[in-house]
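A favour, since you know our structure tokens better than I do. Just paste the record in under my message, thanks.
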Amino acid sequence: MEIIIQPDSQQASQIAARIVARLVREKPHAVLGFATGNTPLQLYRNLAVVHGDTGLDFSDVTSFNLDEYIGIPRAHPSSFHSYMWAHLFSHINMPKERINIPDGMAGDIPAACRKYEQAIRTAGGIDIQILGLGTNGHIGFNEPSSSLSSRTRIKTLTDDSRLTAGPGFGGQENVPNHVITMGLGTIMDAKMCLLLAFGKKKAAAVARMVEGPVTAMVPGSVLQMHPRTVLILDKDAAAELKMADYYNWVRDHKPDWQKY
């Protein structure tokens, strides 16, 4: 893992945007994996600004989202379809036909999951998978105890995840119990994983993920085994890392060609 610690989420998100923008410039047919939630919002705003200011071209980019709730229509204001169009797709020139988000209204969920896996393979695999981190250590909606080799599938949400999502649904009782999510094995197939985590409430999960054992009880810890994972943290999310000084030293002494 490469750990990049920044003073705040704004500066962290700017670095993340530079990483994504560099890939799109160097590989116009890049395949991007997108996450939702509060954490990547600044990243998506930055990408929209870069697109508007410099003409960063997304016309040949393909995207796959991590997850979607089961049983709510795409037009629901709390669906991840709605989130992505509101915060990114309406602001860049990515063609609709290149956008892939799991279908939570599919009649045959297992078949839809297999189709999603095949679509990722057909596209050539994901170049950068953007990730957030749950306070319980989940990535995507791979809740604790998820198989470290799991593929895209149906997953039952924990009470904590439903509580977190509650405000968007007018209360926890209205949050769906199930989602479709990329599995940990699917995420690990990405050529690069780019994980963002901000705020003190993420500090314990970050420390367990980075410096603890690889365990299904902290699903994000599987990224310790990924050949190219970049974690971009603000100082609050990094507060419980025992080796934070070393991570900072490594970043400060990288050769120029390795810097973002």
Remarks:
- The chain has one domain: 2-253.
